[in-house]
Design a protein that fits this description.
Number of helices: 20
Strand content: 15-25%
Number of domains: 4
CATH topology of the largest domain: Heat Shock Protein 90
CATH class of the largest domain: Alpha Beta
Distance between the termini: 110 Å
Shape: elongated
CATH superfamily of the largest domain: Histidine kinase-like ATPase, C-terminal domain
Helix content: 25-40%
CATH architecture of the largest domain: 2-Layer Sandwich
Structural class: alpha+beta
Largest sheet: 9 strands, mixed
Length: 627
């Protein structure tokens, strides 16, 4: 037996490990199982090239709990270590000094990344153990070794009688970490971190029914036996070639990833690249609500099938954070940190690749089955519109597949839309005016008026539509968007011919003065317009610019500072050519008030603005007129 001190320049490494990594102490199991997997895969490689003169067989990794002895065992059948290798890989851990170590990582106490920086995977065991043993037998023809350390720099290393190849690590669990002797806890951690490891991981046993005998009667009761319980899928879908998978395989894997998700994904994108970096994965488009509540932590990041994190910010473009699925890259370290992601060039390349791959897939789906793509549009539009605003490279490609639906359920690309409406919706100044509604029901009367003119009206109802149309206007010369209730239709798309007012200038001034004394000034600006005599006498509009800036301010970015808190302002457009305008002008003061109030309420009703007490009073007055 030999004894010695672990070669570290800090007085005692283990309190530092515990202090700095305690918030992430559960990762010890991930680290130890990952080490066991590496040892097994390395043996596979050595046997395949003839350097290891041993039978690889069908090795597994086993996790065992000894609750009574307060021990946790991690056992592999990998290449093992000789005593010299234990001395080299376990004892010679070099640090530049405690002071530098503490100074460098003082701001990242919760960052498990410091393990990876120093090869401390094995030493993470001391976050939960007061003593650690290693019993290991190399594939080489050398005696087994037994290493023991109680958390101080002192260790013992002696020969052992172990005869089978591989390594067993025994953790003597500390009093403050006894939760790691609970079966449910270990199962939870194995499922979280090691669910898709490439080597079978055994944890306990499970009951399995024996096959029903052919001659069994109706009263047959199944017999159960105990079988090994393997917790992982060693060959998940993302590790396979897309050509080897069918639609059902992708859906089955989605259910495996998200067992509590009952809706099927809309479609998937299989990532598979090996140059200039390695990346595999599958991203799924789930059905999404039409809001900006980004459902982060749905995409899982793996490194060689080892779970790293479900915070993939920086790796996956932000607009795709609403998706679900898996990204696996050996070029991202196992102990990834946010500062690493911000600094690493490969990460940006990966993000750009994912953006391009998603755009290519969407274009392919659009071209292959446009009808199906249109049917799914409302479930994916928020992601794509957000992508157009946040990712220039995605915006460049989006014209090929981003759709603009109409209130009649027709779907256009922007190029198709321009072609369809140019003849009818170009104003007298040569501007192409795209009419849109944000609420088909609330703006129905305005949509109806526009359609009577033969105009197309888009239905753009996502929360970021104001930002999007602002960008489209900036990038498309002589193109402007106007919501159908922003003004009277003849004002939204001005043609050469203008209506002549039936009222004189003096009569118009008198009518406007009368209206302004009755209509609430704090909410409405009165405008007299000479419209067709058959047009509505009172129309409430909301100016496009003011409303759009307010919406942009409310959804963040863009717009004018503070406009999100501005009160709603409307224009009351009064048709000076309507019979009602003449009637109001010629009525007495009492009748004027009654006529204006009723007409204003009707206009508000058409905009969905008549609510609460005002609506109740209006209904009551209306019933009175029926008596």
């Amino acid at each position: 037996m030999s004894t010695g001190k672990i070669n570290v320049s800090v007085e005692n490494i283990f309190p530092l490990i515990k202090k700095f990594l305690y918030s992430d102490h559960e990762i010890f199991l991930r680290e130890l199982v990952s080490n066991a997997t590496d040892a097994t895969l390395k043996l596979k490689h050595l046997t395949s090239i003839g350097e290891a003169k041993t039978e690889y067989g069908n090795p597994i990794i086993e996790i065992k709990i000894d609750k009574e002895g307060k021990k946790l065992h991690i056992i592999d059948q990998g290449l093992g270590m000789t005593a010299d290798e234990v001395e080299k890989y376990i004892n010679q851990v070099a640090f530049s000094g405690a002071e530098e170590f503490l100074d460098k990582y003082k701001d990242s106490a919760k960052d498990a990344g410091i393990i990876g920086h120093f090869g401390l995977g094995f030493y993470s065991a001391f976050m939960v153990a007061e003593k650690v043993e290693i019993i290991t037998k190399s594939f080489k023809d050398e005696p087994a070794a037994h290493w023991t350390c109680d958390g101080s720099p002192e260790f013992t290393l002696e020969a052992h009688t172990k005869t089978d190849r591989g390594t067993e690590i025994i953790l003597h669990i500390a009093e403050d970490s006894l939760e790691f002797l609970e079966e449910f806890k270990i199962r939870e951690l194995l499922t979280k971190y090691n669910k898709f490891m490439p080597i079978p991981i055994k944890f306990g046993t499970k009951k399995e029914a024996l096959p029903k005998p052919e001659n069994a009667g109706d009263d047959y009761k199944p017999e159960y036996i105990d079988v090994d319980n393997f917790i992982n899928n060693t060959n998940p879908a993302w590790t396979k070639q897309p050509s080897d998978l069918k639609d059902e395989d992708y859906k089955s894997f989605y259910r495996e990833l998200y067992p509590m998700q009952f809706e099927e994904p809309l479609f998937n994108i299989h990532l598979n690249v090996d140059y200039p970096f390695n990346l595999t994965g599958i991203l799924y488009f789930p059905k999404l609500a039409a809001d900006l509540q980004i459902q982060k932590d749905k995409i899982q990041l793996y490194q060689n099938q080892v779970f790293v994190t479900d915070n993939v910010e920086g790796i996956v473009p932000e607009f795709l954070m609403m998706l679900k699925g898996v990204v696996d890259s050996p070029d991202i370290p196992l102990n990834v940190s946010r500062s690493y992601l911000q600094a690493d060039g490969n990460v940006k390349k990966i993000s750009n690749y994912i953006t391009r791959k998603v755009a290519d897939k969407l274009k392919s789906l659009f071209n292959e089955n446009r009808e199906d793509f249109e049917a799914k549009w409302n479930d994916i539009k928020v992601v794509l519109e957000y992508g157009m605003l946040s990712e220039p490279k995605f915006y460049e490609k989006a014209g090929d597949f981003v759709l603009y639906p109409t209130t009649d359920n027709k779907y256009y690309t922007l190029a198709e839309l321009k072609e369809a409406i140019t003849a009818n919706q170009t104003d007298k100044d040569g501007k192409l005016v795209v009419l849109y509604a944000s609420d088909k029901d609330a703006q129905h009367s305005y949509i109806d008026i526009a359609k009577e003119k033969g105009y197309e009206v888009l239905l753009l109802d996502s929360p970021i539509v104001s930002h999007l149309i602002q960008k489209l206007e900036a990038d498309n010369e002589n193109l402007t968007f106007a919501r159908v209730d922003a003004d009277h239709i003849d004002k939204l798309i001005k043609k050469e011919d203008e209506q002549i007012s039936k009222l004189s200038e003096e009569e118009k001034e008198k009518l406007k003065t009368t209206l302004e004394t009755i209509v609430p000034k704090e909410n409405y600006t009165v405008q007299l317009e000479a419209l067709d005599s058959t047009s509505s006498p009172f129309i409430i509009t909301q100016p496009e610019f003011m409303r759009r800036m307010k919406e942009m301010s409310q959804t963040g970015g863009g717009g004018m500072f503070g406009m999100g808190n501005f009160p709603e302002m409307y224009n009351l457009v009064v048709n000076s050519n309507s019979e009602l305008a003449t009637t109001i002008l010629n009525a007495d003061e009492s009748a004027q008030k009654e006529l204006v109030k009723n007409a204003l309420d009707l206009a508000k009703l058409s905009q969905g603005l008549l609510k609460g007490e005002e609506l109740t009073a209006f209904v009551k007055r209306s019933f009175e007129t029926l008596k």
